[in-house]
Every structure is written in C-alpha cells, then in structure tokens.
Q: What sequence folds into this?
C-alpha cells in the first residue's frame, strides 16, 4: 500500500450557532501516523468526518495528494474509517465481515479468499475466521474492523477513538499492535483521541485542538516539552504552571518574578526582554524533592521551600503535593527506579526543599512589551 499526503486548508464547520471548526489548516505527510488530540467537543471528530466524506465543510478545502475531495462521497475517496463502535455485522462470520468490501466490488472468489486470509493474518486473527463477532473480545473485534478497513487498500486510514471502549490494559496492548500494523502497511494513519497518553505513544506528529482551533502541531516530545499555550501545557500530561513577568534577561537566561513563588531562573530558545508577560511551566518529574536544602553549587538552580500536603504512593512512583511558604501547591513526581527504593522516605507534613535547574522549566505564551 502507499500512503497519501493530506492537506486541510482553512476548513470551517458550524452546526447552527456552534462553530465546530474554525479556520483549521493542517499538512499531514504521506505514511505518517498523525493524531488529532483534544477534549470532547473540540472538533476533532468533525474534522475526521469531513476527511472521510461524512460531513461537508462550510468553507475551506481538503486535498488528498493535491486533489480536492470535498465534492466526493465517502465511497469515492481513498480513505476508510475505523469507528469506536467497531460497526461489525453481527450475523456474518469474521471472514465475511472482512470480505464484505471485496464482495461489494465483485472480486473473484479465489482472489477474495486469499486477500481475506492475508488481512486476518496481518491482525493475527486467522484462527478466528469462522467465529461470529459475539464470540470475540473487544480487542479482537477492533482488529477485525481494522482488517476490514485496510482490505480495500486505502491510502489514508481514519481512526475515530478506536480504543476508547477497551479497558486500560487492553488499550495499551492494542496501541502496540496498531503501531505495528502501521509500520507494516505504510499508509497514512489519522487518529482521533482525547487520551494524551495514546497520542504521545504512537504518533509521529500531534495536532492539539480546542474549541474548533488547532493550537499546536509537532512531534510528541515537542508538544510535551515545549507547549505553545497554557492549554497545551495543562492538557498534555501534568505540569506546574504560573503567570509571571520577566524582570531580568541575560542572553538566554531569564529571571521571572512569580507572585506566589518568587523569582525563578529559566533558559529560553531566544532572548526574552525584561517586562515580558509570561507563563512559566515546570513538569513534576523535573523537580527534585529532599529533606535537606541542596548545596549552592549551581548558579542556575531554583530552590523552593515547602511542606508535604499529601504523598501518594503508586508503586513505580510517588506523587507529592507540596505547599510552599507562599501558599501555592507544587506537584512533584519521584520515580522508584531500583529495588532498594521501597517507597517514600518523605512523610506527610514534612518540611522539604524542591529544586530544578533553569533548563528544566519553559516559558509559555510570551507577551513582549
């Protein structure tokens, strides 16, 4: 199979007075695993339905390999959709469910049989060909739906929250399988999800959406480590986010005054002048927690004093909520990386010191004077 480039240009879509999509533009590369990520109601499923031909945009264009497909019906596009609900025919066997698109095209029986067997093997269900959908688990049903969507050899596979009906462990297993299938078939996957863990796990790039707009597009590490807006910083993973102002700037090292924290140091990609209004973010896993104040060996080290409001032990890590002397709460994650680390030595209400380097924080939504 060959994937296709998908170009979405200035697409808008409203339902009555509700603007589901507002001037959305995206370039999705051939063979890419691309995720549309955002909360419920952000417009991601509406955009996917427009790509699949199930909705028509009010304005804008959608092109596949440079050809505008807005006027084409779903069956005339080189796309197929995998739905959240599986959409299998309950009265047909697994073999016949996968064969259904080929029977519509009147593919010769020998070719049909061979191709169905190949696609059942691709999703590791060849031993279940004669079973009925009711005899399969949720994960198996979703694999049948994927095989049926792929057998027509689309250039773009659209996946509308395909794992949301599965339990947590099965979702993780299916994510690995889905990524493996993508690697094998090589076509363009466009994946809709509200689960940021899913998107970070499998995507080549992610578009974060909210209220009908695309807020940021980039590879997972960029979205996580360098969020473009306060919403992205809060939505992707957990973070500590504060509003402040730059009071000093020396090259790429800025000093930010945060009323509820004090002055913190942060390195920047470009110089940020004094007087800039900013949001400052530092991820919980970047912060070190200790009962003793760290030695002042590094000039770029930020240190904040506080007391543990709540330690939450969860096996592989402990999450601490630490209230500072100025009354603000920091989230801190301490990983348990070896056998000797049996749990939190820091206790509830204990006085602690939090520290992180200037390189571990980031500035978000910089408004220059």
A:
């Amino acid at each position: 199979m060959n994937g296709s480039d998908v170009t979405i240009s200035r697409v808008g879509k409203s339902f009555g007075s509700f603007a589901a999509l507002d001037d959305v533009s995206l370039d999705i590369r051939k063979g890419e695993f691309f995720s549309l990520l955002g909360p419920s109601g952000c417009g991601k499923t509406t955009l996917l339905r427009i790509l699949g031909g199930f909705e028509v945009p009010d304005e804008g264009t959608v092109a596949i390999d440079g050809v505008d497909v807005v006027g084409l019906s779903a069956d005339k596009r080189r796309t197929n959709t995998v739905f959240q609900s599986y959409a299998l025919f309950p009265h047909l066997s697994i073999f016949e469910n996968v064969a259904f698109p080929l029977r519509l095209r009147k593919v010769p029986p020998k070719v049909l049989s061979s191709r169905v067997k190949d696609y059942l093997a691709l999703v590791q269900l060849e031993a279940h060909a004669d079973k009925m959908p009711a005899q399969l688990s949720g994960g198996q049903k979703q694999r049948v739906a994927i095989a049926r969507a792929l057998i027509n050899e689309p250039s773009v596979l659209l996946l509308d929250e395909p794992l949301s009906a599965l339990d947590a462990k099965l979702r993780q297993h299916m994510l690995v399988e889905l990524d493996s299938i993508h690697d094998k078939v090589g076509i363009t996957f466009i994946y809709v999800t509200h689960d940021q863990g899913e998107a970070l796990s499998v995507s080549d790039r992610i578009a974060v959406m909210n209220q009908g707009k695309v807020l940021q597009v980039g590879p997972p590490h960029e979205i996580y480590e360098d969020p473009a807006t306060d919403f992205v910083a809060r939505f992707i993973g957990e973070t500590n986010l504060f509003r402040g102002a730059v009071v000093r700037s020396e090259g790429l090292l800025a000093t930010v005054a945060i009323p509820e924290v004090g002055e913190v140091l942060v390195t920047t990609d470009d110089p940020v002048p004094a007087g800039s209004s900013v949001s400052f973010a530092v991820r919980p896993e970047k912060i070190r927690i200790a009962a003793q104040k760290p030695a002042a060996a590094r000039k770029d080290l930020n240190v904040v004093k506080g007391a543990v409001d709540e330690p939450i032990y969860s096996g592989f890590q402990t999450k601490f909520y630490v209230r500072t002397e100025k009354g603000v709460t920091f989230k801190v994650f301490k990983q348990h990386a070896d056998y000797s680390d049996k749990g939190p030595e820091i206790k509830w209400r204990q006085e602690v010191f939090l520290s992180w380097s200037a390189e571990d924080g980031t500035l978000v939504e910089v408004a220059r004077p």
Summary: Residues 38 and 209 are 5 Å apart (CA to CA). The first helix runs from residue 44 to 52. The domain at 238-367 is CATH 2.40.50.140 (OB fold (Dihydrolipoamide Acetyltransferase, E2P)).
